[in-house]
Amino acid sequence: PTVTASDSVKLYVEAHGDGFPLLLSPGYCQTHENFRPQVDPLVAAGARVVLWDYRGHGKSEAPEDPGAYSMERVMDDMDRVLEWAAPGRRAVLGGLSFGGLASLHFTLAHPERVRALLLLDSGPGFKNREAQASWEAQVGRIADRLEKMGFEGYVDGRAAATAIGRRPDLPAAQAAGSAIQAQNPHGVARFGRCIVGPAAGVIDDLPSIQAPALVLVGELDTAYARAGEVMAAKLPNATQVVIPDAGHVVNIEQAEAFNRAVIEFLLTVPSK
Questions:
Q1: What are phi and psi of 255, to 5 degrees?
Q2: Phi and psi angles of residue 124, each rounded to the nearest 5 degrees, phi first
Q3: Taking the complete model, does pTM exceed 0.85, yes or no?
Q4: Which of 22, 39, 181, 195 is 20 to 30 A removed from 133 (C-alpha atoms)?
């Protein structure tokens, strides 16, 4: 099924289960398939698990106009997906990497819609201008590569660790890789240049977020270890968990440990 965005872009969506809504947002260049290992365990734990693809990603449409890509559009898309899956209900927002930052932006804009947060190998963006510029340049290089070469060989090279994880032999990693390689590279590149690279940081806003938050990081994901510590320290109601022997794509690399940690956290979240 698809959800129609405010600018008529068709967004791919899935919903599983009939419990409390839980929207899972993947990282940049990833698709809904990256969260497939979480569907059955989280449905069994009482969730209505909602998977989706950002505009430009996966099975969603990829508008050619760069003006169709902004963080405001992403937040509006999230709102429409939630209204489709669970109208009027507060949701748990879970996001890996960029998905975590997008979830923070949504929470700051719509706190009344958010029951809890799952911030997974993610960060709150940058305050330092040089760090921000370096990040934008890195995302720009990814976009350049995609426009020149597409996704051919993408999950077989250096990007594999952040796209499908450090255990590419796993069936879940292979399924995620196939979905990534089937994407429109130009849509993903535009999303990166217009949204992911210039995304505003929210570090100073974290103390205002009252929703319970699980800050979960893979032990081997050194790039996001400090970011996780910062979020855990600044969010008023945060729980921090480090998953052993896991890198950036922690939910695939160590799915059982990841699912257990998430379910244990969700059991502590108030039902209203």
A1: -60, -45
A2: -95, 15
A3: yes
A4: 181
